[in-house]
Amino acid sequence: MEPTPRRNLREEQKVLTHRRLLDAAVTVFAEKSFLDARMEDIAQAAGVTRATVYAHFPGKAEIVDALVDRVYGLMGEAYADLAALPRWTRDSIRTWLDDAEARWRGMAPIRRITNAAAPGAFRSLSEGRAQYLEAHERYVGLLVGHPERWRGTDPAEARQRALMAVLQTESFFSVWIAADWPLETADPLQLPADALCHLLAPALENDGCSPDAGSR
């Protein structure tokens, strides 16, 4: 297999500028509403010219679209990490949830911004739906991508279990972290770990649904 070609310096600079603009947009949109924020504000926050902003994004709506893409990408990285675990046990899933919490906390400001900017900033409803379905199809594909893990399980059931695991994880972190829902339990991740173990049980080792399974 040939190595992936490296980007040249100009391409790297373009990628870095793109990221800087999105980071600046998060700062600006957090301080001002989507309607009140200006492209000039984003340029100033990023330390670039207004022309540079327009060279990357035609308008604010396209910036919000890019932020949504970033969220989907970060969630994809989280599920890729779960899929890449050598073994699924209760302990490994709990460790993954700890890491996933950190990812969702990093995404939280972006989620709040994109939610507040809706519906005027988003692409058409049909495009947004297609984007959502495409992303979640990718997440499910990651979790069922190792058939040996799901040996003996009907593929349709495996996909549904994976989908429910994704949706439950996403909903929990979105409400708890992005929406600041107060949780008073001593260990907020214990119940999500139990739920994931139950949903992914056919693919877990050592009777993974049991709370003490990892110590057996």
Quick tags:
Arc Repressor Mutant, subunit A, 216 residues, single chain, Tetracycline Repressor, domain 2, 67% helix, disordered C terminus, mainly alpha, 2 domains
General description of the model:
This protein has eight helices and no strands. It is mainly α. It has two domains: 1-57, Arc Repressor Mutant, subunit A (Orthogonal Bundle), CATH 1.10.10; 59-215, Tetracycline Repressor, domain 2.
End-to-end Cα distance: 41 Å
Q: Please, how many domains?
A: 2
- Number of helical regions: 8
Uncertain residue segments: 210-216
Strand content is: under 5%
CATH architecture type of the largest domain: Orthogonal Bundle
Cα-based radius of gyration, to the nearest Å: 20 Å
pLDDT averaged over residues: 89
Anisotropy-based shape: elongated
Q: Give the total of beta strands.
A: 0
Name the helix and strand elements from N-terminus to C-terminus, one letter apiece.
Answer: HHHHHHHH
Helical content stands at 55-70%
Biggest β-sheet strands, sense, barrel: none
Task: Give a brief outline of the structure.
This protein has 216 residues and is mostly helical. The chain is built from 8 helices and no strands.
